[in-house]
Design brief:
The chain is mainly α. The protein is built from nine helices and no strands. One of its GO terms (biological process) is amino acid transport.
Length: 216
Amino acid sequence: MDFKDAYVWVNVEFILRGFLMTLEVAAAAIALSFLIGCIAGTARYMRIPAVSPVAAFLVETVRNLPLLLIIFFTKFALPEIGIKLGVAEAAIAALTVFEAAMISEIVRSGLNSIPKGQIEASRSSGLTSFQTLWHIVLPQGLRRMVPPLVSQFISLLKDTSLAVIISLPELMHNANIVIGHNYRTAVPILVLAAILYFAANFTLSLVSRRLETRMA
């Protein structure tokens, strides 16, 4: 183990640049997958004709595919049909598609967890289906969704490391390059990478707890 050579500024700066790429890709994928997942999950919950069956088919298909396959598909298969994406864009697209499928199930389950009696009472009081969803179901469902959603976001952030397979210059990609130059730096560099992952994911956990407290 060579901590002195591992933690020279050139290496640390290179690792931090990879970490920044990890955060950027994760942030973009989280925002997009949350939006798409909420729409798909709500459509399935509302059982919208034509939309709900299609959403269910796509969600179940994606959920049963490995993320690595989807990453390969976005980077190497889409160009065959004329859709060319950069490395970062391909990683974001793959993560978005995969995580949106997972999030849609979280959203659907959260909405379905609301007692039917409350829904029937709101409908009998004159509220429309949309008003019932907006005023009764969503506020309660969101409280129950926070923990699993944050867990999914944490998984997403860690899954960005799979994009190393398409040479995305993220944290693990850059860590591997540093280690490749001097194998004696492997332990300290991996320790640094672990600390950075922990810091990001622990921050998400703290945000989750704060949200749960405020929504309680």
